């Protein structure tokens, strides 16, 4: 009887009850890892080198002196800016106080008694300083205003171009003389000798035709 072929024997051996000879396990060696530096480690090393170089530079005498000079310059600039700001605030406060003083001309001293009505604009206006008169023409020349109704050139000095009577601030007359001049002007205007809407025609003519006045 012939022996079976090798493939048949291997096939039958799989279904046989006899245990096959166990092959020894193969030895598996772990892969050898080479120590290659990663990108993060490289960056950390570069930063350390930079910090070490910067520390060395900062410890140098030239860098420390430049740092002190820069700090002193910054402190000086900050001080000058603070001083300018204080001057601006002082000027603003002074201007504001002057405005308040103009609105309240009365000067209060300790011990003064006042009522709320004394702080009203009408009462405060009584304490404003009036402009002093330079000269009273009527007193200087010794004139009688009621007798000067024919002197149109004098009347023009106390009236506007539209025939209105000027205020005592503009005429610089005393109250008594101001009333007399105003009474004289109203009388002559009521008589129709002086116009109420413009200057006297003879005075207007002399302004437009000064050559005729020189001939006369």
TrEMBL record:
<protein>
    <recommendedName>
        <fullName>Small ribosomal subunit protein bS18m</fullName>
    </recommendedName>
</protein>
<feature type="region of interest" description="Disordered">
    <location>
        <begin position="1"/>
        <end position="67"/>
    </location>
</feature>
<dbReference type="InterPro" id="IPR001648">
    <property type="entry name" value="Ribosomal_bS18"/>
</dbReference>
<dbReference type="InterPro" id="IPR036870">
    <property type="entry name" value="Ribosomal_bS18_sf"/>
</dbReference>
<dbReference type="GO" id="GO:0003735">
    <property type="term" value="F:structural constituent of ribosome"/>
</dbReference>
<dbReference type="GO" id="GO:0006412">
    <property type="term" value="P:translation"/>
</dbReference>
<feature type="compositionally biased region" description="Low complexity">
    <location>
        <begin position="31"/>
        <end position="41"/>
    </location>
</feature>
<dbReference type="Pfam" id="PF01084">
    <property type="entry name" value="Ribosomal_S18"/>
</dbReference>
<dbReference type="GO" id="GO:0005840">
    <property type="term" value="C:ribosome"/>
</dbReference>
<keyword id="KW-0689">Ribosomal protein</keyword>
<keyword id="KW-0687">Ribonucleoprotein</keyword>
<dbReference type="GO" id="GO:1990904">
    <property type="term" value="C:ribonucleoprotein complex"/>
</dbReference>
């Amino acid at each position: 009887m012939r022996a079976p072929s090798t493939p048949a024997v291997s096939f039958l051996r799989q279904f046989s009850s006899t245990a096959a000879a166990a092959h020894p396990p193969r030895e598996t060696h772990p892969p050898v890892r080479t120590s290659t530096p990663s990108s993060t480690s490289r960056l950390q090393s570069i930063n350390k080198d930079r910090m070490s170089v910067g520390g060395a530079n900062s410890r140098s005498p030239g860098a420390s002196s430049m740092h002190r000079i820069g700090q002193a310059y910054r402190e000086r600039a900050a001080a000058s800016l603070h001083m300018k700001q204080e001057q601006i605030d002082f000027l603003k406060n002074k201007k504001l106080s002057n405005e308040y003083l103009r609105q309240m001309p009365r000067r209060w001293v300790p011990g003064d008694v006042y009522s709320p009505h004394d702080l009203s604009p009408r009462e405060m206006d009584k304490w404003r300083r009036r402009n002093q008169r330079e000269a009273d023409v009527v007193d200087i020349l010794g004139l009688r205003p009621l007798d000067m109704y024919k002197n149109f050139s004098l009347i023009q000095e106390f009236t506007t171009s539209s025939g209105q009577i000027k205020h005592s601030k503009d005429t610089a007359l005393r109250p008594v003389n101001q009333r007399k001049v105003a009474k004289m002007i109203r009388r002559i205007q009521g008589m129709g000798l002086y116009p109420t809407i413009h200057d006297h025609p003879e005075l207007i003519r002399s302004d437009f035709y000064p050559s005729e006045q020189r001939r006369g």
